[in-house]
Amino acid sequence: MAKIIAVVSLEPDKIGGGAPIFIAPDEAAMQQTAFLLEKILDASAHDLKNGTIIIVNHH
C-alpha cells in the first residue's frame, strides 16, 4: 500500500494533513523541491496538476 510522505505546494492555505508540507514560491521551485525529495526519500513524485505534488512511498 502506498503512503504519502510529503507534499509540495504553491498554495499553503489549501493543504493540510499529517505529512510534511513544503511551500514553494513558484512552479519551478515546486518542481525542484519535489525532484530533490523524490531522490532523497527514494520515493515517487506525482503531480496533481493543481499546484500540488505529492511524494509517495510505494514500498
Describe the structure.
The chain has one domain. The protein starts with a strand and ends with a strand. 24% of the residues lie in helices and 34% in strands. The mean pLDDT is 96. The chain is built from one helix and four strands; from the N terminus they run ββαββ. It has a four-stranded mixed β-sheet, with helices on one face. The longest helix has 14 residues, at 27-40. The chain has one helix at 27-40; strands at residues 3-9, 21-23, 44-47, 52-57. It is an alpha+beta fold and 59 residues long. A hairpin with a 4-residue loop joins strand 3 and strand 4 (52-57).
Keywords:
59 residues; alpha+beta; 4-stranded mixed β-sheet; 4 strands; 34% strand; globular
Provide mean pLDDT, rounded.
96
> What is the CA–CA distance across the termini?
7 Å
State the helical fraction. Answer: 10-25%
Structural class: alpha+beta
Number of helices: 1
Helix and strand element order: EEHEE
Low-confidence stretches: none
Q: What is the global morphology?
A: globular
Number of domains: 1
Percentage beta strand: 25-35%
